[in-house]
Each structure stands twice: as C-alpha cells, then as structure tokens.
Amino acid sequence: MNGPTMSIEVAGLSAIVTSLSSDAHTWNLVYLQLVLEELGVRVANLGACVPDEVIVGECAERRPDLVVVSSLNGHGCRDGVRLIGALRAEPALVATPVVIGGKLDVAASDNSARLLSAGFDAVFDDTAGLLPFRSFVRTLAGRAGLPIGTR
Amino acid sequence: MSLLAPPVAAPFGALVAACQARGELVVQPRMGFADPAAMRAGLLATGAARAATIGTVTLDSYTRVGDHGAVRQALAAGADLNGYPLVDHDHDVTAAMLAGLGFPVQVRHGSADPRRIVLALLDHGLHATEGGPVSYCLPYSRTPLATAVEHWRQACALLAAHPDAHLETFGGCMMGQLCPPSLLVALSVLEGMFFWEHGIRCISFSYAQQTHPGQDEEALAALRTLIGRYVPHARAHMVVYTYMGVYPRTPGGALGLLAESARLAVRAGAGRLIVKTTAEAHRLPTVAENVAALEYAAAAARSAHRRSSTADTGVLAEATDLIDNVLSLDDDLGTALVKAFATGQLDVPFCLHPDNAGRARGYLDAEGRLRWQRVGAMPIAAGPPGPDRITAAGLLDALRFVERRFDSTSLEWSGP
C-alpha cells in the first residue's frame, strides 16, 4: 500500500507522541512522528522525560484521537502502568485510545497482559516491526467512519 | 563507615595524563547496576582488565530526573533499576561498594539538575563526573535551559571544592548521531568554558564518533585547537565516544566499529575512550562483555599512531563562528547560551526540547559525511542542497548508515 492512499484513509486524526517521565530516548519519538505524519496524522510530540501530569494536561487540553507512548529505558512497564492510571482517572480521557511500545523492562519479558489490564488499548513489542502499529492506526480511523474526536 | 577503608585512587585527570604521556589510551565502560554487589563486581572487573581503565558508575534514570520517591519505592519493592541509585542507597552500602578500588571512578548520570548527585559523589570521596548545562538538558529533559544553567552553575561550584575535581563535557555527543561535527565541537568547547568559569580546572572535552573517519579526525583536531584557544589553562584531555547511534548487530561489525573508534582516538590525540560492546544492539551488556570490549579497544589503540595533520573542510571555522557568536550575546556565558538557543543561533537537529528552535537539520552526503541541510538562525552556511524533506524511511536509513556499513563488511573483517 502506498503512502497517499493511507493518508486519505486516516486523514484528520490527531495524535500525541510522548516518552515517559524517566525516559530520555527521543529518536524513537522523532521516527514515530514521521511515521504518523506520513499516514496523515497530525502529531504533537512531547519529547523526552515528560512527567505524568504534563502528559495528562496536554491530553486533556488537546483531546487527541490517539496517544502513542514509546519507551526504551527499561522502566516503561512501571512508568506506563502509573501513567495510564493517571490518564484513565481523568474523565475526559477514559476512552481515549492509548498505546505503548518499545523495550518496556530491563529483562525483555512480556508485559502485555499487565499493561492491557492497566488500561492501555494496545501494546507493541519492539521486535514485531511497525506493521501492527500501522494497522492499529488504520483500524482506528476506519472504526470512526470519520475522523475520531472531530472537534 | 569508619571500619571501611576510603577509596584510594589516583586523581582522574592525572591518571589520564600519565597514561597519555606513555602513549596508552585510557578505556572506560558504560556500566551501572542497582545491586551494590553487582556494581562492585563490575568495577573490580574493569580495574582488572588488560588495559588502562577508569571505572564507571552510571546512575539509574529515576535519579537522573530527581524522582527519589520512585527510586526508594523500587528499592523497597526489590524491583530492578537501570543504574546505581547513588543518592538513595544507604551511605554505608555505597562506601562498601567503593571501598579500596584503587582506581578512579567517574559518576555518569545524564541529569539536568546534578546538585544532589554531586553532593553524594563528593560525600563518597569521588571527584569525577560529566555532563553540562546544555548537553544534559536539551536531549534528556524538559527542564527549561535557563534552569539547567543555574543548576549546573551551582553543581560546578560544589564540585570545584574538591582539589581533584574533574568534569567532562557531554556537549560533543549531542543526540548521539546525525548532528554535524562543527556544532558538537562548539558545544563541547562552550560547556568546557562554562565549567572553567565556575571553578573547574581539570576538564575533558567529549566528541562522539560519527559517520566518517576523516571528518571525525578533522573535528577532533578542531576541538584540540579550540581548547587551546578558549580554555588554555585547563588541565584538559579529549575523550572519544564509540559510536552512540544505531549499533552493528553482528559481533564482527560491532568490534570493527569499536576498533575504528579506538584508532580514531589515538590518531587524533585523545586521552580516553568510552567503549561500546557487542551486546549494544541487543541488550545491556554483561560485565564480561564490557571487559572484552575494553581489552579489544586497548589492543586496537596500540596498533594506531598519532597523526600530525588532517584535511580541513571547514569544521574548525564553523565551530569558531558558532562559539564567537555565542560569546557576543552576553558577558555571562550561561546567559549567552540561553539567549543563543532562544533565538535559534544554536539549534540542535532533531532535538525535541521546547527550548530548541528545531529549524536546523543535518544530512549524510554521498561520502557519508554529516552536512548541514538547513542551519536555521545559526551564523554558518548551509552545505550544498540535500534531500528536500526527511521521511520516516529516510531517517531510518540515515540512523542505520553506520550499522549497515559495519555489518555488511563484518564477514571480510579480520582483526583490530
């Protein structure tokens, strides 16, 4: 499938891309922003080491159609579980799609069940490539019929 | 604790200078474990490696961002951390971890606010650390640059109280990859000047290996010239970082890149090398993998020789223009740095920090040299026209350029 087709498919979605409070990696965020932009998604990139309250505040203000959390420093599962609790505690963000991916703990074990039960909508393992993530974004757009969260 | 011998070690800067005088490159790992026994074992193994070594204690990332509540929770729960929590471990625990090592240890942390870390390391008789007001703020935090400058001013003053205080600039490593060398050199020098202004007399200046050996050698020659020009009275050495970007996956490729960085360090007259291991592309390295990397790099260094001249493609002139422009903005260097970033006169490509203008962009030319595609408001010229717009695939290609070069040749590669 080529880029322009996908762009039409998801045009209108907006996303927040962010790391977690203790994670300083940013190339993953730069890359994900470009991937989403090429899918036609408008992106606000919050960058490195974003405190939970900043993420919650930005999400409550911008009301994105998708929140993409990316973490590589091995604290992603701990910090992610804490973050999703804070996001879901905000009434406006109870149903906002929030996904997480990367290297999520020091031991490279499978944290999917824990993160999903904590409230994430999807968990993307960094070994599986980008296809599952792109599919998720396209499905999100398709599910909406028109761009989700149109303001 | 009084029963434990304090750590006795040669001063950091003096050890590197002595090794350099006898033609030996000092090699150093990246290493940090939450468990004090594991941390001590790693330091002892580093010291026992067949190479001139310095030990590393890398702190965990909760400590880096000052979230000491999270550190204590993790320690109480027995959870793993990604480094040594120097501030929150009991004093006696850390004293025992460091006792009688007999070689210098550098504390590595990545913090935009290193004040508590500096107090903790001094409290344990340590005197060497690294970072900088720009390099540990922009890439790794959301702390306003002006706040980080103030924190680092205070941290320098605290550290300067130790007679052997050593501080390394991290400015030569910004973003790890895809930053054109002239900006890396300028930031390394500017951070060194900042340290000097705040009382630090023994300073190392970093530079991270990039994509082209000739360009890297030119950059280090420029760095050497500018240290002599702007910080002439510092006891100084240059420290090279083995490539910090996407790393080769094959053992041969990983070792080839490590060896190239060791030869670069020697050819350019650097005193120290921070190594990477064959595990880099896959996971955190074990102590044994780190020791193997230290010994491999030391062996590669022994086969290389100092070079007397390098080609000049303009790195020195660009770095000089960047530095002089910053110095013209304010009499106080910290204030000048803040003004420079606020107006985009310093602008780090691909850096997402709110205080970075984000208008500059580098690219890799056909020969693998890092060039400027756009310079934003920086007082330097853009190179010849590069690609119009970066795509996700184009970014990955650039990020993986070095990995591909070394992995694709690793089968033919035969030794250091």
Automatic annotation (TrEMBL), chain B:
Which GO molecular function entries does the Swiss-Prot or TrEMBL record give? cobalamin binding; methylaspartate mutase activity
Per its record, how is this protein called by name? Methylaspartate mutase
Q: Pfam families of this UniProt entry?
A: Met_asp_mut_E
Q: Which UniProt keywords apply?
A: Cobalamin, Cobalt, Isomerase
Tree of life domain: Bacteria
Q: Which InterPro entries match?
A: Cbl-dep_enz_cat (IPR016176), Glu_mut_E (IPR006396)
Q: Which GO terms fall under biological process for this protein?
A: anaerobic L-glutamate catabolic process
